[in-house]
Design brief:
Layout lengths: L1 E5 L8 H14 L4 E5 L5 H6 L8 H5 L5 H4 L1 E3 L10 E4 L8 H4 L8 H6 L8 E5 L6 H9 L2 E6 L3 H20 L5 E7 L7 H16 L13 H8 L4 H4 L4 H13 L1
Parallel strand pairs: 1-5, 1-6, 2-4, 2-5, 6-7
Antiparallel strand pairs: 3-4
Helix pairs in contact: 1-12, 8-9
The structure holds adenosine-5'-triphosphate (ATP) and magnesium ion.
Adenosine-5'-triphosphate (ATP) binds next to α1 and α10.
Length: 255
C-alpha cells in the first residue's frame, strides 16, 4: 500500500479537493483506495459522505480501534463507479490532538495503525489540516510521498519553505522513505499575469527544496465546487469537465 499525504499549512490551497480527486481517480482506475481524514474540519469526510458518529481517525490515533475496523466501506450508491474505496473519517475532536496525542512515539501513531490495512488497499490518501502540528507530522511519518498544493500567491511560496523544513526533519528523524512528490499549482487562472509570474517563482522555489512543480496545473473551475456540492467525485459528476481533465492529467503524471 502506497501512502500519499496531501499537506500544506496554508489554508484553502486545495488539499481536500486534491485528496478527493486523486483517490477517486485511482479508484475509478480499479485501485483499492483508503482515504484518511486527519483534519478536524472534516471536509473530506463530508464530501465522501462518511459517518462521523462511527470510529474516527482520532480513535485510530489514540489506539481505541484499529485502522481496519475504522475504515468505512463506501458502497456503490454513495460513490458510483468506485471500487473498494473506504474512508477513516475526521472528527472535530482532532482539534485537540496536539494536547492529547503525547508521549514517545507520538509521531508514529498513524504509521503503526496503517500496518493493519496494508494488504487491504493499494493506495492510502491522507488529508491533513492547514497546520504543521502533530496531525500533519503523523501523516508525513506514515507517508511514502507528499503532494503540496499551492496557490499562485506569495503566502503559498512563503509556506513552502516551512513545510520543506518539516519534511526534512521528519525524513531525518522519523521516516527516511518520505519524498516530496511535487508542488501542485491549484486554482490556476491562466489569463492573469500575476498567476503566470508566481508560477515561475513557485517552480524556482520547488527546485530549491529539491523537488519539482508538477507540469499539470489545476485550473480554477466551478466544476469542482459543483461536484462537491452534489456529493460526487469530479469524475462521476462530469468526466469532461476541466476539473476531471486536470486531475486525470495529474494522476497520469504521478502514477
Ligand atoms: N481548482 C479549483 N477550482 C475552484 N475551486 C476550487 C478548486 N480547488 C479547490 N476549490 C475550492 O476552494 C476551497 C478550498 O479548497 P479545499 O477545501 O480543497 O482546500 P484545503 O487546502 O483543503 O483547505 P483547508 O486548508 O481549509 O483544509 C473549497 O471551497 C473548494 O471547493
Ligand atoms: Mg482541507
Amino acid at each position: 500500500m502506497r501512502i500519499i499525504a496531501i499537506a500544506q499549512q496554508k489554508g484553502g490551497t486545495g488539499k481536500s479537493t486534491t485528496a478527493q480527486a486523486i483517490g477517486a481517480g485511482l479508484s475509478h482506475r480499479g485501485q483499492r483506495v483508503l482515504f484518511v481524514d486527519l483534519d478536524p474540519q472534516g471536509n473530506l469526510t463530508y464530501v465522501l459522505g462518511a459517518d462521523q458518529s462511527k470510529a474516527t481517525a482520532l480513535d485510530v490515533l489514540t489506539g481505541k480501534v484499529t485502522a481496519y475496523k475504522a475504515a468505512q466501506a463506501m458502497n456503490a450508491g454513495e460513490l458510483p463507479g468506485m471500487t473498494a474505496a473506504a474512508v477513516i473519517p475526521g472528527s472535530p475532536y482532532l482539534a485537540g490532538a496536539d494536547a492529547t496525542i503525547t508521549g514517545t512515539g507520538r509521531e508514529y501513531r498513524l504509521a503503526e495503525a496503517l500496518k493493519t490495512v496494508t494488504g487491504a488497499f493499494d493506495v492510502c490518501i491522507v488529508d491533513t489540516p492547514p497546520a504543521l502540528g502533530i496531525l500533519t507530522v503523523n501523516a508525513l511519518t506514515a507517508a511514502d510521498d507528499v503532494i503540496i498544493p499551492c496557490l499562485a500567491d506569495v503566502f503559498s511560496i512563503q509556506a513552502l519553505g516551512q513545510i520543506a523544513d518539516t519534511v526534512a526533519g521528519i525524513k531525518a528523524n522519523c521516516n527516511p522513505r518520505l519524498k516530496i512528490s511535487g508542488i501542485l499549482l491549484t486554482r490556476y487562472t491562466p489569463r492573469q499575469n500575476l498567476t503566470k509570474d508566481t508560477a515561475d517563482i513557485l517552480g524556482d522555489a520547488a527546485r530549491k527544496i529539491g523537488t519539482r512543480l508538477f507540469n499539470t496545473r489545476i485550473r480554477e473551475t466551478v466544476s469542482l465546487r459543483e461536484a462537491q456540492a452534489m456529493g460526487k467525485d469530479i469524475f462521476s459528476y462530469n468526466p469532461r469537465s476541466a476539473g476531471a481533465e486536470d486531475y486525470n492529467a495529474l494522476i497520469e503524471e504521478i502514477f
